[in-house]
Amino acid sequence: MTTPPDTLWLTPNPELKCLNHSLLCHLSRKTSIGQWEYQQTPDEPNSLDVAVVLLHDYLKVHHRQINLIGHSTGGLLGLMYARKHPERVKSLTLLSVGVNPGIDWQAHYYVQRKLLPCNRGFLLYNMANSLFGNQDELTIRKLVNLLEKDLDNSASPHSLLQQAVILPIQVSVPLLVCGSKDDMVVDSHQIQSWRNFIKPNSSLFRLWECPRGKHFFHHFYPEMVAEEIVKFWDAVKDSSACNSLSYVKGDGQSPLKATNHMTISER
Asked: Which residue numbers delimit the RGS domain (predicted)?
């Protein structure tokens, strides 16, 4: 029987997994880490419930807890799993997941698609600029291609017909919520409002905001994000209190060791 890693990155949107690579490399120096992917076929219903079941099938045969990490829809999947199977989760780290966890870039895209008389390509071009900041023209085109594939293949709960509304999900596992101050999809209010929806028996809870980096801040500043995640893991390991609640807010004074320049490899 294969032993699972200590940490599992949840990927229900595999088209965008290239944006996670740098952070995974940094985290792999501190823990054994694997990626769990889920991709719907065009004939399957648009539901993360199936992904929760399949994830549990993977984890239930192993008799130890695991750290879960997810960005956007991956974080929503982690929340759903941690609520249903908290005994399996050592800690949960959410990146770009607001207190209303269903809000993702696709929700913004479909709202604009309904309101604006623009075609898909034009809107995706604008979304790429909003999500990643100023990039050269070749990079923007590659990003538009990634976003278009994500629209077609990810497990996001949204579609052109309906934008799902998902209420806050409370979990009792140690929880780290990370966001970016300049994220136009999951803004600072969505991140900070997590403090109002944490169960009293949460063993550890932290919030952290990256000074900048937009929706995919973990791609631009992987070292800084990895440092916060590792500090959280250390706190979980060292903490014996069941109700220690702390709030950590990025003060904008930490040196940023990356720029917003991107290199997207051809697939």
From this structure: 203-238
